[in-house]
Specification:
Largest interface: A-B, 78 and 78 residues
Order of helices and strands of chain A: HHHEEEHEHEEEHHHEHEHHEHEEE
Distance between the termini of chain A: 42 Å
Structural class of chain A: alpha+beta
Oligomer: homodimer
Low-confidence stretches of chain A: 328-332
Chain lengths: ~325, ~325
């Protein structure tokens, strides 16, 4: 059935029913939710910790192509990129509002499949879908607002503006895997089944580092960002807001063996500027980062250090210890290149 | 300058600067804001009252046309429709997150003009623009999430689901004025300057009934909705969620003399199903509504009553006291008519 046949109100009822079925009575978010989908706004009981909010758009033919993305992964990833922003603040995600725009000839089953993917991640993360909005449009747009908090009163946040010269720079997990996955899917490259599954999942089905973000806060890390634009580009955000420079030892940048094997020399470029890995990039003293390493359940790799340099400058040090000129890395919307 | 020339980061800096300049140190929202635009998420000090959140899209060629809308009014109205949802819950709006999608060839000045319109309303309403997101897209999309609260702990909310048979139905202000304004602008109808100004402003520059929503709560009203789709359509939402029916005395529906004079017999249709007036539609006992009338600074008009009827049924009573068959009124996205 097409969305235009079901109508807006029919579609809202259908999606509200899905969200209702997926609610988890053990989740604090659902317990505190007073008014969910269907009223003018959503309402929940407040608490006294620091509140967090973030919004991200997931737009067809800008952020995703339906040639590559199954509908389920559109829903998963649209929510994942938002929860990743809450994770990058060290927060606990609680609620999400979903603003959906769809062409009238979209199949209703595709929309419910999208919601299924989104609800799977919401349930895994204890997030209640508290409300949203549906409009018609010429293309599919999933605009999600994620709300969260710090859990404990007066707990500090991970910001982009607290990096200090001398601190180490570290990342969770591996870099370049999502970009390798995109390249594999877009170019229809053939790899062994295990590599295919791994790369595909990294790009279509990223897992926001929610537990790791909270671990960073608990261990005393002050500065973090999630890697969405690419390592260099996102590190530049930290450097700019912290008014420092940085240097990365490229031989330390963690590239997964499957990416190294499949993409060879190109792996480094993917890792430095590929983006969309949604790993956490953070800074801290060697001692603090060692504590994080001991407690984390994912790889933590030191890749460089914060230095006093031109504000926002990110230097790359090659295997021989020389500075590399990498040109413009990371991407920006709009800018003609 | 085109957005594509300035680039995403340049545009964010520019808009962040505008928001920063517009911040109001006397506003509680700004006082409690800990992290605003520029980090992964926004953060503010929590409180213990009920939290409210709502999201609404404002999409080019769906919700507005740039042939009719000056950029300033795109910003004003995109925020207004969201604050109206907080008002319809009886809440106090506190924060907004702005997710903007723009074609690369949009003039930067047009974007800052849009922000100027939005910031004007934000300042008037004590709302802090806490963050947002910018993407490229083929058309202009302003997706705003408004966050608010009830101010006082345990204060009740205005919902759509609390109407009871026997209650009166009332509205703030006049109905059909926004639809009259749209028709005037779209058809380039010529009226006297005062009428033109009034109709134009009703459609392009609606004032969300924030103070009135809080007044309704304080006086004991339990049920309200803002009129966005149209009187009949929005009353149907209340009836459906409250599991009741309703009847409207069409002679009571408040139409402004300027609309009556300019549109004659068509005024009633505009008032019943025109939509976008962003007035509040609410129900309550005669006694409660009389108290609201005494304290409100805008017209409050009783237009009918809640009855025990087929759930969701809205009956129209004509000037002779007979039931009218109005057909399908109010509009839905998607549905082919």
């Amino acid at each position: 059935m097409r969305v235009s046949e079901l109508g807006e109100l029919g579609l809202i009822d259908l999606l509200a029913e899905m969200v209702h079925s997926a609610q988890d009575s053990r989740s604090v978010s659902w317990q505190k939710l007073m008014v969910g989908i269907g009223d003018d706004a959503s309402a929940w009981q407040g608490n006294t910790s620091t509140q967090l909010a973030t919004v991200d758009s997931f737009i067809q033919d800008v952020h995703f192509s339906l040639d590559i993305f199954p509908w389920e992964e559109v829903g998963w990833k649209a929510l994942a990129v938002n929860l990743s922003d809450i994770a990058a603040m060290g927060g606990i995600p609680r609620y999400a509002l979903v603003s959906l725009a769809l062409p009238g000839d979209t199949e209703v089953e595709d929309v419910t499949t999208l919601y299924r993917g989104m609800l799977e991640l919401a349930q895994q993360s204890g997030v209640a879908i508290a409300g949203g909005n549906i409009s018609s449009a010429l293309l599919v747009i999933v605009d999600i607002t994620a709300l969260g908090d710090t859990g404990i009163h007066d707990r500090h946040l991970l910001t982009r503006s607290a990096a200090i010269p001398g601190e180490q720079i570290a990342v969770t997990g591996y870099l370049g895997t999502a970009a390798a996955g995109l390249e594999m899917l877009a170019e229809q490259l053939q790899f062994d089944p295990e590599t295919t599954r791994y790369l595909r999942s990294a790009f279509l089905h990223p897992h926001p580092r929610i537990a790791e973000g909270q671990l960073l806060v608990a261990q005393g890390i002050k500065t973090a960002i999630d890697i969405s634009d690419g390592l260099i580009s996102d590190l530049r955000h930290i450097c700019k807001l912290s008014q420092v420079g940085a240097q990365i030892e490229i031989k330390q940048v963690p590239v997964h063996p499957a990416v190294q094997t499949s993409f060879g020399d190109k792996s480094l470029e993917l890792a430095l500027s590929g983006g969309e890995d949604y790993e956490l990039l953070f800074t801290g003293s060697a001692e603090t980062i060692n504590r994080v390493k001991e407690k984390a359940s994912c790889p933590i790799t030191v890749i460089g250090k914060i230095i006093a340099d031109k504000i926002g400058k990110v230097n790359l040090i090659d295997r021989e210890g020389k500075r590399l000129d990498f040109g413009k890395a990371g991407w920006e919307h709009f800018t003609t290149r």
